[in-house]
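idk why but the lab printer keeps eating my pages so im just putting this in chat instead. protein + zinc ion:
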Amino acid sequence: MRLGPGAFAASCVAIEVLGVAIFLRGFFPASVRSASPTGRLAEPAAPEPLAGASSNWTKLPLPLFSKTVIVLIDALRDDFVFGSKGARYMPFTTYLMGKGPSHSFVAEAKPPTVTMPRIKALMTGSLPGFVDIIRNLNSPALQEDNVIRQAKAAGKRMIFYGDETWVKLFPKHFVEYDGTTSFFVSDYTEVDSNVTRHLEKVLKRGDWDMLILHYLGLDHIGHISGPDSPLIGYKLREMDGILMKIYTALLTKERETLSPNLLVLCGDHGMSETGSHGAASAEEVRTPLVLVSSAFERKPGDIRHPTQVQQTDLAATLAIGLGLPIPKNSIGSLLFPVVERRPMREQLRFLHLNGVQLSRLLQENVPSYEKDPGFEQFVMAERLHGNWVKLHLEEDRSGALLNLGTKVARQYLGALKTLSLALSMHVAQYDIYSMAVGTIVVLEALTLLLLSTPQVLHRRAELEVPLSPPVFSLLFYLVFLVLSAIHVVVCTSAESSCYFCSLPWLAAGGVMVLVSALLCVIASALARMVMDSTLLWKSAAHPCSGWSEVGLLLLLGTVGHVLSLGASSFVEEEHQTWYFLVSTLCLALSQETCRSYFLGHNNELPHCFHTEPGTVGATSVHQDCFACEAPKAGQMDKAPCPSGTHRGHARWAVLAGPWLVLACCRLLRFLNHTGVQGAHRPDLGHWLTSTSHKMELSCLAALSLLVIFMLAQRGCSPVSKVALALGLVGVFCYRASIGNLLFPWQPANRGISKATPTTSPPLMSQQALWA
Ligand SMILES: [Zn+2]
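predcted complex ->
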């Protein structure tokens, strides 16, 4: 069977897409989701368990707090509050945590440590999966069950000030809001003043139940100058003052209403040592979570080592504190200290509600949920809880009852922890089997493409698909059988929950057929290649074969550079290997040219440059012969008269070439410092793109476009020349119209841009783009 080049390429691309899709499906496993539709809110709460009868406490318990204020400080790292910085710059918060009625925790955020996913995690208590990424592409509003939605359904009035992400995630949920944009990274003052300016008025009013403030300034400072900047101290002090203001106002309100309020201080993610965030380092993941309420016990204690909890635990805790149902997809467990001063019956009721929600989520997502230790523990605790309620209703007031209650609570807490761990493991689990299948498919298609490159270059781009020869058919059936056996073994093993196993057998079989067929095609192509090359070896000693030193260096360097891209610091400093490689290559080239010229191998020089290493297969070897023979022939015609100035010029040009390239590389490095370490250093790019050097940039751009035209127009028809010129003029006009460049007739307003504040927004937006 023969395939044309188009059909061959198209099928290769289709196979690649299939492989990548299977891989991604394994890499981003489905998140844990409740089966019940999110639209339905009024689901009856689980009744209190009662041994031998059904309890009449079926309603949700009443809210524990009347007003709640959530202060979210973007990029608040745990040591900004609990460390030496906190003691120095946040004296009031430190006092509250040490001696006030509060509970402090270190809440661990899951990567990606970026604001929007973290807000979602805080309010839904769930971790996003692959399906959500696809599902949320076109709708910014949060569709999932969350605390804000539940609070709105319960008729709570909520007010929001701060990062406008919240307004996009929860449209029409807030009775009053003012969103600030996080676009101007260089602004760390206005962005917070826009939040604080509402505070005074709102705190005086009583017509709200929940106030959410999201301060962005600290994050912006981190992005500008890192976590050790002196600006951090000022910002923390400002935040401390705000917390004091809110706490005092809440206390005043409490005296009027006589019911406790809740103040929550949290961060969405931390800040790395360079001031950025997004990854999974300890600095980026650990955030403080401080809950303050007069309902809590005042207990002097060590605040330097708070308990570590999960960020997702806040959703369940808030829901219980506000008397709301826990969000359906929440995998968090209740922060028990919040309820530990409530009567025992209420405590157990809260724990039971959380347990029911978690075990329901486990049942809907894990097939073998009954064997889960957390589930078993929960069932046992629920039975004990029933006994406890029975004794309690029988007015048993002995110490034994209290002991039993404590035991039940402890058992519930253990069960909650195990359940939420099992659920988060379920989310974080890579589906290795699907990933492996996807990788194999992709690699096979890639190998096939590589192997066919010589044929394509040879303009005989037809691929022989060798499914008919008996040897390959045998190989095909063998591989198919082995793969099917592996599939059966993997999918019938106890704890497999692979996506690939959940596919119908026919579809999985199709993929197996594809994998085996590709393997056979590759094997046959390789076999033919080996046969062809041995034939060639026998026929003649080939003049072009063998590796030159430069070729070897190029090949090894390329392989090394590709390998370095897989480093953990993905695309941070990898350009350094490229710089190193280019410099080394230039030096090697220079050495080779010198050797060729001064040691008297003049005629061989062009030959060196035309020797193509890495000839794959016989067909390309043939081609190479043309490639290296052609210049030789040309040299016979022109170069046999090498005496005189022409030859001298050429010689020096060739000798200077590598050094010229080296100089260009140096210029290139200076043009733009890429990477994380050097990003802040001033470079030519910054100089050119600053508003005061627009004229220079415009001249340079015009010159570069002219050079491009001069180089590209050779050998073009007049029509293409005009088209090329028009296109290049268009490039310049576009850049000028969006304000990057100046037209020749435009004045260079360098004085004005510095004097009037009206031109500062473009500058700021540029800085934001660089940041
Ligand atoms: Zn953030």
